[in-house]
Each structure stands twice: as C-alpha cells, then as structure tokens.
Amino acid sequence: MFSGAPLTSVVVGPGDSLYIAPFTFHRVTALSPVTISLAVWTESTQQLDGKQALDETPLPFEETWSSETMRCVALQFAKLVCDALDRRATFVFDLLTSRYAPSRSTSRGLNATSFCSSFDDNAYASRNSRCRLDAFDDTLREKQINRSGVVANRLMRLRPIGVREMYFWNWLESLALFLVHFGSATTPEDFLCELMWLRRASNLEDEKGDVI
User: Fold this and answer.
1) Using CA atoms, how far apart are residues 148 and 142, in angstroms rounded to an integer?
2) Is 200 among the domain residues?
3) Domain assignment of residue 212, yes or no
4) Angle formed by the axes of helices 67-85 and 161-182, nearest 10°
5) Which domain holds residue 137?
6) How far is C-alpha 2 from the geometric centre of its chain's CA atoms?
7) Is residue 11 part of a domain?
C-alpha cells in the first residue's frame, strides 16, 4: 500500500527528541538491547474539531431493534457514507485489510492477499437479501440518507485527504466495534468484510440498472 511513499529514516541518540506531525505513519526500531524512550502525545485543533463533529452526529439506530435489524441498517448506513466519499474510501479499506489480516490469517488460514476475497457469494447474498435500502420504510430510509450525508460532509471538510481518510477509518472501525458490543456482528472484520461485499454487489447491480 505504501510502496511508492517517500521514506525518511532518522536515528536519535541519548537526549535527542523527534517531532512527528499528526497523522504521519511511522515505525520505531530499537538499535540496542536496552532502550528507554518517552512519547508525548498532543492533539491538533483540527483533530479535536473533526472528532467532535463526528461524535455529535447521532447514528440512525434504535435500542429496541433486534441485532439483525441493527446489522442491516448499519451496513446500509456505512455503505451510504462510503458511496458519498466515492473512490476516496479505497485507501481506508486497504488500511483495514492490513490491520485485520494478521489475526484472520492466524485463525482462519488466510493471508493478507486473500483477506475478504474468499466470500461465498451465495451465502452473503442470502444473508443480506433483507438488507436492501429499498426494503426499509420511507422514514428510516430518509433518516439513513440524511444522516449519512451529514457524516460524509463533515469528513469532506477535513484537510488534507490523509487526515480525512484516517478519521473515516476510525469512524468505520468504531461502528464495527459498536455492532460487536450490540451482538450484531461477531468481529469487527466480519462486519467490514460484509460491507465490502455489499459495495461490490451494489456496483454489479447498478451496472444492470437495479438499486440495492
């Protein structure tokens, strides 16, 4: 994913300090057997404003819903946000794949390349047949569209694009973890794989002139 990204290597010694700007991907390697380091974190104004804007956007969910209804609504809600961000969501899925692939490869015999690609299309299609947006009632469908638009617009205001993508990544992962807590998903990666399948299936349906 970062094969073409520029790389800067810095070696720090005793008493040195290194400033790393917010949202900069980095890795630390100890060069001696005994190393003591101290990391001090600060949050930028943009970071705080962006987090507050997203946190203050209520999710279109109801506590009385069953876990299956919650899963369906969450899938369509996340899909609407992804669609609104268009291709800018690609990076986020790559990042999620790289984060969750190691645990899945250990427990299920998959590697990063095959992560989320070995779906049983028939099983997913059957499972999600009731999760179509046009199967929701008018009130819920309108709420889904409006709230997803708010989330997408607030993400689009974040600059630069790397900051936006990181917030979008965190938002998707938080949604997945919420569903695991609610009992609507087994693991975060399972929900995110379903979301990727739903987007892929939607693209195929759109080519046929249908709406999903």
Assistant:
1) 10
2) yes
3) no
4) 170
5) 45-207
6) 18
7) no
The two tokens of residue 40 are 């001090």
Q: Is the peptide bond before 160 cis (omega within 30 degrees of 0)?
A: yes
Structure token digits, residue 44: 């930028």
Sign of CA dihedral 87, 136, 73, 107: negative
How far apart are alpha carbons 195 and 76 in whole angstroms?
8
pTM for the whole structure:
0.75
Concatenated DSSP letters of 45-69: HHHHHHHHHHHTS--S--TTS-HHH
**Cα gap 154→51, rounded to integer Å:** 10
Which of 46, 43, 33, 37 has the alpha carbon at shortest distance from 12?
Answer: 37
Distance of CA 200 to the CA centre of its chain: 16
Tokens encoding 6: 């520029």
**Any domain includes 67:** yes
C-beta neighbour count of 31 within 10 angstroms? 8
Phi, psi for 190 (deg, rounded to 5)? -65, -45
- Distance (Å, rounded) from C-alpha 84 to C-alpha 149? 7
The region of weakest confidence among 66-70, 83-87, 138-142, 172-176 is 83-87
Assess whether pLDDT exceeds 90 at residue 132: no
* Neighbouring C-beta atoms of residue 174, cutoff 10 Å: 14
What is the total count of domains within the chain?
Answer: 1
